[in-house]
Design a protein that fits this description.
Layout: E1 9-11, E2 16-18, E3 23-27, E4 35-36, E5 44-49, E6 56-66, E7 72-79, E8 87-91
Parallel strand pairs: 1-5, 3-8
Antiparallel strand pairs: 2-3, 4-5, 5-6, 6-7, 7-8
Length: 93
């Protein structure tokens, strides 16, 4: 059975919430980077910790957007929990 890990915690206070897109937005430098999400796979992500409640949700990288030179512009992450309607976009600064 696959176990979900709790990689690289980051507080929602370090990010901006956009209610129209239901997306947290921030810069990768405001996090501790990515860590492994599952014990039996190499998927990377982070653990978002609510600055208000302390609840934790694990997000996994689903896309990495690059520019014409091949440099990463931003990463898109989605929650592991399918019932959570939110996303996370981290820009490469």
């Amino acid at each position: 059975m696959t176990k979900t890990l709790k990689p690289a915690p980051v507080s929602t206070r370090q990010l901006t919430w956009d209610p129209q897109t239901r997306e947290y937005v921030g810069e990768i430098s405001s996090t501790h980077g990515f860590g492994r999400v599952y014990d039996d796979a190499c998927d990377e992500g982070l653990t978002l910790v609510s600055g208000r409640t302390g609840n934790e949700e694990v997000f996994v990288v689903i896309d990495e957007v690059r520019d014409a030179e091949g440099d990463t512009q931003y990463w898109v992450l989605r929650p592991v929990n399918p019932n959570l309607d939110a996303a996370l976009r981290l820009f490469n600064d």
